[in-house]
Amino acid sequence: MKLQGIRVVDLSLFLPGPHLTMMMADHGAEVIKVEPPAGEPTRNVGLRKNGESVWFRNTHRGKKSLCLNLKDEAQREQLLALIDTADVFVEGFRPGAMSRLGLDYATLSARNPGLVYCSISAYGQTGPKRLMPAHDLSVQADSGTVFLNEGSNGEPCSPAMPVADMAGSLMALSGILMALLRRTETGKGDYLDISMQDSLVAWLPNALGPVFAEGRSPVVKDERSWGGNAMYRVYRTADGRYLTLGGSETKFADNLFAKMNRPDLAEICRLEPGKQGEAISYLQQEFSRRTLVEWSEWFDGVDVCWSPVRLLHEAMEEEHLQEREMVFEDEQGNRHLGVPIKFMDEPARVDTRLPALGEHNQTLLDLIQEV
What we know:
Layout: E1 7-10, H1 16-26, E2 30-35, E3 48-49, E4 52-53, H2 54-57, E5 64-67, H3 73-83, E6 88-91, H4 97-100, H5 105-111, E7 116-121, H6 136-143, H7 145-148, H8 163-186, E8 190-195, H9 196-201, H10 209-214, E9 232-236, E10 242-246, H11 250-259, H12 264-268, H13 277-287, H14 292-299, E11 306-308, H15 312-317, H16 319-323, E12 327-329, E13 335-337, H17 361-370
Parallel strand pairs: 1-2, 1-6, 2-5, 6-7, 7-8
Antiparallel strand pairs: 3-4, 9-10, 10-11, 12-13
Helix pairs in contact: 1-8
InterPro entries: CoA-transferase_III (IPR050509), CoA-Trfase_fam_III (IPR003673), CoA-Trfase_III_dom3_sf (IPR044855), CoA-Trfase_III_dom_1_sf (IPR023606)
Organism: Microbulbifer aestuariivivens
Protein name: Acetyl-CoA:oxalate CoA-transferase
């Protein structure tokens, strides 16, 4: 596997750090999760099956658990000795916390020059907001993406996805892999300052036209991606379900309205977003005449970007995800998310075992003594 032989020591909690280190574990890295005496918080968050929370199961599989009280000097020294053997160190605390514990980059890199050290925080290690407490919702609100998540009443809605968390996770993974690649040439590690806000803002190229070109915020309902384009919208069906049109290329408008015997409305879809009201009104009326199942049959064979709005449990049962092994079940009947990074050679091998709190303490402490 691609990361076999890489040892990761992970002090992070909740989602961004644990998610990225799980992806490393899936591809062969040895990931040692350092847990506080109370354990990783997500062990006890949300619904459980077979004794473990679904959240914990899908962020901590295949890892080892080392339970330490880092306020205890002797246990902190044990951690330092372990980090001396590591390739990667990940932490997700507020700036300054690691320095107070003597676990800052300067200290660790002096002992282990090849260490790739990754800090993930809400706002980064510099700047006036660096010490502000924040989780995903606060970061999204502060970055303008909650504003973009406008409901039909024109008011912002709580976002459904933890995009700041996950953007931070993926940016951190990318940075760690870059640093490991560079280390093969230099022998030297590096320090990564990953901000969830930076990571989220970097995902906004398609949203910033009005901001960068005209110095204004977008009128959300009139923008191409959020309702201003007839061919890129959510529509209600006769049975109270929903479908989406998700491709604004004019060829799809031509194909759709040709089958609806209204080719004239394809011309409306060539107008700029926010001026396609005639086509939108027609489609709202038409889609309300049939059920979602009927529309699924109607669209069969039509070259149009469309999709049913599936309920979440429906989506996880969908045949395509099963074939792609993105949802699978282990021998105990626990369901898991699969691996999205699919190599032809050396594919991931998912180890669905979960560590008990502190399960690997003795093994890892024996390892330290042998070094």
